[in-house]
């Protein structure tokens, strides 16, 4: 069973004076510009500003989220009602840190992000999964125990069972294997594919920045250790001192958001706003006699079209002025006569974690629908508008 930090000295929180912090960020920005293979390693501390508590912050922490979950448990007490926490992690909005990391990855500066977090915020923020190693799983991801197929969900896929079974089955007709959540519990082996990716990048890295990790959990903590042991630069950004404190080239004592905001200013790279990213596929298949057609609406991973993504709470199908069908669970399939000349409206209702408004797909008639179309829907929660586009980076302002 995991516990909070037992050493009182390790629980203390430190903050660099502004002049010292400026000097450290100047150095780090210079190293990033000079780096050939820059990686970042994140822990729970990158998500506390989104309202998600961490695990090991002390009882007297300055964090608005309050003490860490295991610190509370060790002290047999409950979280204060004054703590600023989000009670549904699906509603957590990616932080400045999350979005800064996305922009560094998009520009090719960040080669790999290794994460201990399972809150799903790195993928939700827009981080390309090819550059991400999620060592402890993702609450929105489940996998087939037979064929290994992946499924993303816009809800918590884990239901807390020790055998990880979610009760859902693989979509592939030839498989139909049981799906399992991807969360890694204490004592369980880390996913080999993710671990191999992380260590490969650690072996090539000339600079590793750690953000918000206590670095007390192995084998995850061995990844930044590998960089230090290779005599390459290891920079640790954390309020508490870590077991790798003496091995680090530089220790920065500041909030993750403070570090990343200062870094991006020095790199002269704007931090992009967060946008809800969705990819939708619409497929039309006619019957053998062409008298009817079957229409399938499905979500897909914005970065990997091969991975299904559960996006819709329900779909309402309207023909002309008439509502003909409401579908409330996957697969979202409906049939319609091929020769129907009435306008067709498909009303997409999302889970609404960020108060997303529904989106309407409108077609002049069935015949005007393409056999298959795939497009992006981008939603800016600050202005409450969707943008439909075929370009993966055509974000709304």
Automatic annotation (TrEMBL):
GO terms for cellular component: nucleus. Zn(2+) binds at residues 144, 147, 170, 175. GO terms for biological process: negative regulation of transcription by RNA polymerase II. The lineage of its organism: Eukaryota, Metazoa, Spiralia, Gnathifera, Rotifera. This is protein acetyllysine N-acetyltransferase. Its EC number is 2.3.1.286. It comes from Rotaria magnacalcarata. Residues 18-270 form the Deacetylase sirtuin-type domain. Coiled coil: none annotated. PROSITE patterns: SIRTUIN. The active site is at 136 (proton acceptor). Belongs to the sirtuin family. Class IV subfamily. GO terms for molecular function: histone deacetylase activity, NAD-dependent; metal ion binding; NAD+ binding; transcription corepressor activity. Keywords: Metal-binding, NAD, Transferase, Zinc. The keyword rRNA-binding does not apply.
